[in-house]
Amino acid sequence: MTAPMPETTRSFLAALPAAQRQALEHLREVIIAAAPGAEEYIGYGIPAFRQDGALVSFGAARSHCAFYVQSPAVMEAHAAELAGLDTSKGTVRFTPDTPLPDALVARLVKARLAENAARQARKR
User: Fold this and answer.
1) Does residue 2 sit within a domain?
2) DSSP string over the chain
3) Domain containing 56: what range?
4) How confident is the model over 107-123, as pLDDT tens digits?
């Protein structure tokens, strides 16, 4: 039997072990500070943000937390800053003991904002 889908970020976070909850609450605060106009929602069962389209999201697995940048281009553009971190095409994985630097998260969020704004401008 699987756990029910969370309806809010608060319920998602409340279901996590304390260390993951605290790490992701902090990540959420950094995202909100970097993208104060973004709308928060639950997408695919995890907390997500959108502004001019999908922006970023975050989640938790048994052994790590994840920051979903959702853009291979942004990940590639910040490859030097991401070196040494556990990454894949659009994701940065971390543990509560080794959180992501706030400044890096903010830069990634702002890069996604710029990417989304440019895509919206091309549509007009």
Assistant:
1) no
2) -PPPPPSSHHHHHHTS-HHHHHHHHHHHHHHHHH-TTPEEEEETTEEEEESSSEEEEEEE-SS-EEEE---HHHHHHTHHHHTTSEE-SSEEEEBTTBPPPHHHHHHHHHHHHHHHHHHHHHH-
3) 9-123
4) 999 999 999 999 989 88
